[in-house]
Amino acid sequence: MIILSINAGSSSLKFTGFDMPSEKVLISGVFERIGIDGSFYTIKLNGEKIKKEVELKSHEDAVRILTEELVNYNIVKDLSEIKGVGHRVVHGGDKYADSIVIDKNVTDTIRELFHLAPLHNPANLMGIEAFQEYIPEATAVAVFDTGFPQSMPEENYLYAVPYEWYEKYGVRRYAFHGISHQYITEYMQKFLGKENVNLITCHLGNGSTIYSIKDGKCFDTSLSFSTNSGLVMGTRSGDIDPFVVPYVMKESGMSMEEVLNTLNKKSGLLGVSGVSSDSRDIEDGIKEGNERCILAQKLFVNRIVGYIAKLCCPLKKVDAICFAGGIGENSIMTRKQIIEGLSSLGVELDEEANNVRGEFKLITKEGSKIPCYIVPTDEEVMIARDTYKLID
Ligand code: AMP
Questions:
Q1: What CATH number corresponds to the domain at position 228?
Q2: Contact 353, 368 (CB under 8 A)
């Protein structure tokens, strides 16, 4: 059975076609710069990467072209062979803990939550609507990034603000990247051969998040109300005192929108280094002795170590600390610095084992109090699995 796994962003649409239940990837790719000059798409199949430049006015254009290419490249003879389309949806509020077949109630809820995820939910919905038009017979499934962390206990997700803010306005800690953390958890459950795993899962990429997993369920996270919370990210500040915002507005004359935009797009590794949001550029800068790159990396690692330490405590016993995401899977230097920062927890790096990129591996010494692993994540297959489960 063929299932498509879709991740629609504001100007991009990523897709992977799976044969299920074998989970074999048949085709994958991304449409980029949708609605912007210079749009193009790339397709990967049979180990080849094909790039085509084409005008993409909307997500609908991207989906139309994708459906044509699926036939052109013989992935399907007829679109009716695609039985399911799974969509990553960033914000499900506290309404959805599990993935769900999309009907009007679901699309209405995604729309109602636009104000909580203004950059993500509108794009996710555009993707859903375009596929409903071109492949209407396929079962459409919403897989929520906020789903897995719904198991957090009240004391972890509530803020100490007037309780009505939560009841009336939905002000609480949500947490994102849930699909990735769930994948890592399920992978480790299989690897360790038990359901009730206690883990610290670190998804470190352009966006970075850490979860604590207690008895196989999300217990707490580094995240908060918005996608700008928690760790230092590529361009996002992570945690700051909310009183910084009105203070900077007053001192600089910037509007609230300008300050928030700066916190989202011009902060993090980019803001501190003044060089780049990309951790590879930061590493290059460090090698050249660039002081601000060194400082940006110190801030990045410092927040990660702090959150891991905080999240470890309530778990009592931690079965493993896991690293995933572009940085977590590939940056030998960052993993080394984090693990060295955790030495007071009795964690001991195995330098030789750590000298790898992008493969599942134990990277701590045998005597380490908590073993650390690289666990390459796979959000696409997680979306395909949930979609497959929900097809009659
Ligand atoms: P993601 O958002 O998960 O795609 O991760 C993107 C981040 O991963 C960027 O900051 C990249 O610089 C980083 N990254 C990817 N490959 C490497 C690598 N080989 N070494 C260090 N960082 C990397």
A1: 3.30.420.40
A2: no
Distance 301 CA to ligand 1 centre (A): 15
Residue numbers of the domain that contains 227:
192-374
Please give the model's pTM, rounded to 2 decimal places.
0.94
User: Do residues 90 and 219 share a domain?
Assistant: no
- Residue 31 within any structural domain of the chain: yes
pLDDT tens string 59-96 = 999 999 999 999 999 999 999 999 999 999 999 988 89
CA–CA dist 208, 29 (Å, integer): 23
Contact 239, 169 (CB under 8 A): no
**Alpha-carbon gap, residue 77 to 81, rounded angstroms:** 8
Q: Hey, is 274 helix, strand or coil? A: coil
Looking at the CA of residue 280, tell me the nearest atom of ligand 1.
12
Contact 205, 328 (CB under 8 A): yes
145 is catalytic: yes
Q: What is the structure's pLDDT at 118?
A: 83
Domain count for the chain: 2
- Domain match, 206 and 355 both: yes
